[in-house]
Task: structure prediction
Amino acid sequence: DTEVTQTPKHLVMGMTNKKSLKCEQHMGHRAMYWYKQKAKKPPELMFVYSYEKLSINESVPSRFSPECPNSSLLNLHLHALQPEDSALYLCASSTSGLQGLMNTEAFFGQGTRLTVV
Amino acid sequence: GQQVMQIPQYQHVQEGEDFTTYCNSSTTLSNIQWYKQRPGGHPVFLIQLVKSGEVKKQKRLTFQFGEAKKNSSLHITATQTTDVGTYFCAGPGFGNEKLTFGTGTRLTIIP
Result:
């Protein structure tokens, strides 16, 4: 199984809502990542988890809260988002887990297309 | 911070023509990776280059890593409609844990 599965595929939420994005992989990867991608832009790193511990937070606003319950799962909890947070949210995983060092190929999920209204 | 630029930003080619995208990093890279993202899709890993001056081929695709490990290129020979998409280079710098994506080159094919 070389898949990274993200749910939901699409999400529309109001600015007062609380929602969660989910990501799952069963490749035994110990590094997992959240990226944000706006239209016609490259993916921008948000968070890195290495061995279930948060190793990198790219100064992401606190309305985004990541969680790594175990080595296969990664969540992104959303609360009080703004319309400018609308984007494609991509989860990725890779084999390198030492201090979040990504030196091997990253497998990306299909993403969650988020719209904040 | 580390910046990775790609040129051109857009490329429109007739089917059968060649295509090249260039990637330049502001810092030395420990390795360079290339990804392809189809319209409406997610990035898919193509290849990783590690050694200075390394050249790798995948069928019609040729990847190069510069001698100084600060630049790279992807060349596609005789493009096909299946090559449509955005090509990103991505690389962690030395001592840098983050994988930074280049600005991308969007390739469109005119049949």
Observations:
- The mean pLDDT of chain B is 93.
- The longest strand of chain B covers residues 19-25.
- Chain B touches chain A through 20 residues (CB under 8 Å).
